[in-house]
Design brief:
By secondary structure, the chain is mainly beta. The chain is 13% helix and 52% strand.
Length: 143
C-alpha cells in the first residue's frame, strides 16, 4: 500500500508542470496532452486579434509516430490550401515546442520555429512566438 501511495505521488509530481496560463496539475503527461489534432481558434499579432475568414481553417496535427507534425491550412478568401510538415520536440524543460519544418521531399530542414507554451490541457493549447519583429499568439482547441 505504501508503494502505491508513493507511486501515485511521484506520478502526480512528474505530471505537474506549470505553464504561465496553467494548468497547475494534470494526471496526463505533457506529451499525452499534446498529441492529436488541434484547430486554430484565435490568432493575435502584436496583441491585436486577427480575423479568420469564414470557412477557413488551420489544423495542427501532432503525431506520436517519430514525433512528427502536419499543419493543414485552407484560406477560403483565396481558395488556397497549404500543407507543412516536419518533426517536433519539447525543449527547455518542456516549456517550448520546437517545430522543424521540412522541404517537399521530407529530407531537408528548411525552418525551425520555437513556440512558448502558455497553456496545455487535454482540450486547449496556447502558444506564443516571435517572427521577425512581430509577436504572435495562437490559441487552439482539440478536435
Amino acid at each position: 500500500m505504501r508503494n502505491l501511495i508513493f507511486f501515485a505521488i511521484t506520478l502526480l509530481i512528474a505530471s505537474c508542470g506549470k505553464y504561465d496560463e496553467g494548468p497547475d496539475i494534470s494526471l496526463r503527461t505533457k506529451k499525452a496532452r499534446l498529441l492529436g489534432t488541434w484547430q486554430l481558434s484565435s490568432l493575435f499579432m502584436n496583441g491585436t486579434l486577427q480575423p479568420i475568414s469564414p470557412n477557413s481553417y488551420t489544423n495542427l496535427e501532432i503525431k506520436k509516430n517519430k514525433d512528427t507534425f502536419t499543419i493543414n491550412s485552407y484560406d477560403a478568401s483565396t481558395q488556397q490550401y497549404n500543407v507543412q510538415f516536419g518533426e517536433w520536440e519539447f525543449v527547455e524543460k518542456k516549456e517550448r515546442l520546437r517545430l522543424k519544418y521540412f522541404d517537399g521531399s521530407g529530407t531537408t530542414i528548411v525552418h525551425i520555429n520555437d513556440w512558448d507554451i502558455k497553456r496545455l490541457t487535454s482540450k486547449e493549447l496556447i502558444v506564443e512566438f516571435t517572427d521577425t519583429n512581430d509577436k504572435f499568439r495562437m490559441e487552439f482547441n482539440k478536435l
